[in-house]
Each structure stands twice: as structure tokens, then as C-alpha cells.
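Thread amino acids onto this structure.
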């Protein structure tokens, strides 16, 4: 140990010729003694050797000894887990380590996340599994590859940096006998260690990330991109671009929950299965007409579907003649809407009555939904429909052909939405509170008293009173409602049911 320290001191303090250093190294330092060196000293020593190698032009016995020593130094560094210290190293030290490029098998670096090594004869169920394993191995070992050949029976890749003298190659074939993908050729190990790959590793692509995050996304498909970035960073130590993670999340969702196209394709089978178990379930499909510029196919184009379960139809007969209707977005590739109609039983419990998936909320789609309700669910008269003031709903309920005009049906506004709209328009909290008090009054005199107070307070902003007076009283006040609402002022039931649907979708 003392001797090594002495040599190192000499090397660092004296101006020695290449021959002298070589001689010193060859004669006096053995591998056994190197083991005793601390990390910092080993780095210095390896650095010295590298310098010497660069200065020796001809390949001689001395040089080969030096290469051997260099290789040993590298092993020593690896043993000391120097990669863990890379973050603390200066940029120049890291650059030098990269230049060192020892000719040793890269799997001796240790650490990382892949607990396997690539070898000839290793077999995989399919090409995707093979590619994923090779990608994980490369990301873990800080190496990159380049595909040379990729067919249905062969996959051949080579190191991405042959210019650094790395001749690593891998070849895998599909074996008909075993029906497995097998690694049939694996040339020399990688010698192109690149510790500088911190971002944009070629093999850390969207497909690989999607496989890695699939279980996480399945457990919580609302997980943020930032959280996924952290997961990959912690696992592999690489930064990944936002767009790549976003793409990976989209793929993971498609794998976990099915593709958007697949989901629509499964809808007929799912509804048919429901009807086979519950024969009274009512389903009605609406097909989209072909446009002149579209290429016609044998299968019809989906437009809308209405469905009401048998149990709901039967239960609604015993409920109050009350329907709350609303629609919610279908988040995904196709921007459809899920339309919902619910009712309330005598105990105040929510009863889902009917559903529809439509292309959008419009007069046409709401009119179709209302007609479907009349056709498949109920023909009772005097049904009160509570909804927000969506223009499509307003027009649809006032269209006689949809069978919800008086006396067949009565439309009422959702109080919560009305107050919300009022607050958005005028941003006047005292008037909003007063309006809420007026709406829920059962007696006309109390309603008038509230509205007198409202008129007085809104004297500075007459448009508030104009806004309210423009809406017929029976649509938004309990005092003039004639009992149609049965005390239900809001369409909150639909809102709560929508939240339940979204939560359940997240849990699955
Ligand atoms: Zn390589």
C-alpha cells in the first residue's frame, strides 16, 4: 500500500517519461495491491494509466500490460460502485471515464433494474417480449442499439455506436418447433459505455414505457404525466420527454382498458349479453347516414344507442313522475356524450332509468332521447322533466313530437344550475343568496317579499331583475310550480350519478 502511494505521488509530482511510468506500473503494482486503494486513488491511478496508453504509439508488451492494468482499474471502480458517485463527479471526470471505455463485459457493472443477462438460447413467448427485455437491458446498462433487420421471423440489432469500435450484435429468430423467439447470436459485449445518457435514451420509447407503467395506469388512469415521469426517472435514472410519456400513457390506457375503437366495437356484444340475461332490457340503435364523399363499408356507422334496463323500467312505474336528465362527456378519442335519465323513489333514493350514447348534445339528439324514453320506458302523462337550460333540451321538450309538452310533460329548471348561471353572469353574492331564498319558498306572499327585497337591492343593476323576470316563474320557483317537482329543485341526482360512473370507471 505504501509503495503504491509512493508511486502515485511520484507520478503526480515528477515529470516522468512514458517508459518510466510503464516500468513503474509493470514492476511494482500488482492487482492484489490495487484492491487496497481507495476510490479517489484508484481514479487517479486509472487516469495516469490512460494518459500513458495514449502516449504509447506502438503496441508493445508494455502497452498490453497497461491495458491489462486499465482493465483491472475499471473492474476495481465497478466493484466500488463508482456509478453511484457519478452524480457527484465533475463534468471533466465523467468525460474521462467515458473515454476510458474498457474492454470488459458490461454486465459486470452491476446495479440497475434488470435482473437477467442476455445470452444465446434465451427464449421468449413473442417478439414484443423479446424486444422489451432487450430494451430494458440496454436502458439499464446505458447502451443503445440500432435495428438492422426486423421481420416476422427474424430480429437483428447492433450497437448504435460502431464508430467507437463496439461490435456488439444480437440476432433472434422465431423457432417453429418451439413457437418461441430465441436469441441465436450474441457477439462481443458492449464496450461503448455512455454514462452521459441522461435524457432521450433511444430504447426508452413509448412502447417500453407503456409496458412499465401499465399496472400503475390501470390502478389510477388519472395519474399525472409528472408522476409517471418521476416513476421512470426513479426506476431507470433517465429523464423522458413529456410527449413520449403522454404517448406511453395513452398506449397503457388502451392496453389496460381497451382501445377506443375496440370499446365501441364491444358495445353491441355487451348490450346483447345484457339483454340475454335480462330480456326486458330495451335497446335501440341509430345508424349514421353515409356522406357522399365517404367510402361505404359493409358494417353500419354508429351514431347513437339508447338502452334502459328491465329492472329500471319496471321500477319507474312505482316512482314519482319525475325525470332528471343530463349528459356528460365521454373522454377519449371520440367526443361523444353519455345521456342519463334518472328518477327518485319515495324514499328519495336515486333510480337510474335510461342511458344513451350520442354524438353530441343538440336539439336533435335530446329530442331522440326523449322519444326513446316515451317509446321504451314510460307513457305516463304529467311527467316533470328537470334539467339545466341547455338550448338543445329547451327546444326538445317544447317540441310536441317528443311527447313532453303539457299535459304529457312539464319542464322545470334545475335551481343549482340557474343560480350558478346567475352568479357567473353578475358575480353578486348577496343577490344570489336572496334569489335562492325566493326560489325555495312555498307560499306566494313569501316569494313576493323576497323578490321585493331582491328588486330593492338590484336597483343599481337593473339587468339582474331583467334576467330573472325573463324566465317564466313556474319554471324556476317552487311557489308557482303547481307541485310538479315534488319538492325536487335540482337535477343533483344526475350529477351524483355521473360522479359515481366516473369514479367506478377509474376503479376498474
Ligand atoms: Zn455498444
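Threaded sequence (508 positions):
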Amino acid at each position: 500500500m505504501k509503495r503504491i502511494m509512493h508511486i502515485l505521488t511520484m507520478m503526480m509530482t515528477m515529470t516522468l517519461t512514458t517508459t518510466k511510468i510503464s516500468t513503474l506500473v509493470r514492476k511494482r503494482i500488482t492487482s492484489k495491491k490495487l484492491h487496497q486503494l481507495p476510490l479517489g486513488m484508484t481514479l487517479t491511478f486509472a487516469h495516469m494509466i490512460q494518459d500513458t496508453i495514449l502516449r504509447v504509439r506502438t503496441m508493445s508488451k508494455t502497452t498490453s500490460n497497461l491495458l491489462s492494468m486499465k482493465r483491472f482499474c475499471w473492474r476495481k471502480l465497478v466493484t466500488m460502485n463508482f456509478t453511484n458517485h457519478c452524480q457527484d463527479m465533475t463534468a471533466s471526470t465523467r468525460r474521462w471515464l467515458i473515454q476510458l471505455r474498457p474492454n470488459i463485459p458490461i454486465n459486470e457493472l452491476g446495479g440497475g433494474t434488470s435482473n437477467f443477462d442476455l445470452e444465446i438460447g434465451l427464449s421468449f413467448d413473442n417478439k414484443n417480449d423479446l424486444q422489451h427485455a432487450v430494451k430494458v437491458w440496454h436502458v439499464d446498462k446505458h447502451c443503445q442499439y440500432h435495428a438492422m433487420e426486423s421481420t416476422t421471423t427474424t430480429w437483428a440489432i447492433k450497437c448504435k455506436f460502431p464508430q467507437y469500435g463496439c461490435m456488439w450484435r444480437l440476432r433472434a429468430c422465431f423457432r417453429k418447433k418451439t413457437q418461441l423467439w430465441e436469441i441465436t447470436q450474441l457477439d462481443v459485449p458492449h464496450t461503448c459505455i455512455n454514462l452521459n445518457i441522461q435524457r432521450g435514451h433511444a430504447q426508452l420509447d413509448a412502447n417500453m414505457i407503456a409496458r412499465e407503467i401499465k399496472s400503475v395506469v390501470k390502478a389510477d388512469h388519472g395519474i399525472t404525466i409528472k408522476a409517471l415521469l418521476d416513476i421512470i426517472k426513479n426506476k431507470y435514472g433517465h429523464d423522458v420527454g413529456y410527449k413520449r410519456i403522454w404517448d406511453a400513457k395513452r398506449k397503457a390506457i388502451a392496453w389496460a382498458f381497451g382501445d377506443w375503437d375496440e370499446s365501441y366495437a364491444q358495445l353491441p356484444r355487451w348490450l346483447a349479453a345484457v339483454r340475454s340475461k335480462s330480456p326486458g332490457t330495451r335497446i335501440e340503435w341509430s345508424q349514421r347516414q353515409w356522406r357522399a364523399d365517404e367510402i361505404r363499408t359493409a358494417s353500419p356507422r354508429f351514431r347513437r344507442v339508447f338502452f334502459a334496463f328491465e329492472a329500471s323500467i319496471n321500477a319507474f312505474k312505482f316512482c314519482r313522475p319525475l325525470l332528471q336528465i343530463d349528459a356528460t362527456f365521454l373522454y377519449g378519442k371520440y367526443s361523444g356524450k353519455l345521456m342519463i335519465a334518472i328518477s327518485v323513489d319515495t324514499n328519495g333514493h336515486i333510480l337510474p332509468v335510461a342511458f344513451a350514447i350520442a354524438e353530441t348534445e343538440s336539439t336533435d339528439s335530446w329530442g331522440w332521447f326523449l322519444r326513446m324514453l316515451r317509446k321504451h320506458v314510460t307513457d305516463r302523462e304529467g311527467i316533470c322533466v328537470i334539467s339545466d337550460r341547455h338550448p338543445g333540451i329547451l327546444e326538445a321538450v317544447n317540441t310536441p313530437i317528443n311527447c313532453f309538452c303539457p299535459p304529457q310533460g312539464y319542464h322545470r329548471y334545475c335551481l343549482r344550475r340557474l343560480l350558478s348561471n346567475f352568479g357567473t353572469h353578475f358575480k353578486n353574492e348577496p343577490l344570489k343568496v336572496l334569489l335562492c331564498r325566493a326560489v325555495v319558498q312555498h307560499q306566494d306572499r313569501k316569494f313576493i317579499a323576497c323578490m321585493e327585497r331582491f328588486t330593492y337591492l338590484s336597483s343599481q343593476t337593473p339587468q339582474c331583475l331583467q334576467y330573472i323576470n325573463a324566465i317564466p316563474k313556474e319554471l324556476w320557483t317552487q311557489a308557482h310550480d303547481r307541485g310538479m317537482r315534488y319538492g325536487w329543485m335540482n337535477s343533483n341526482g344526475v350529477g351524483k350519478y355521473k360522479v359515481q360512473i366516473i369514479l367506478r370507471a377509474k376503479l376498474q
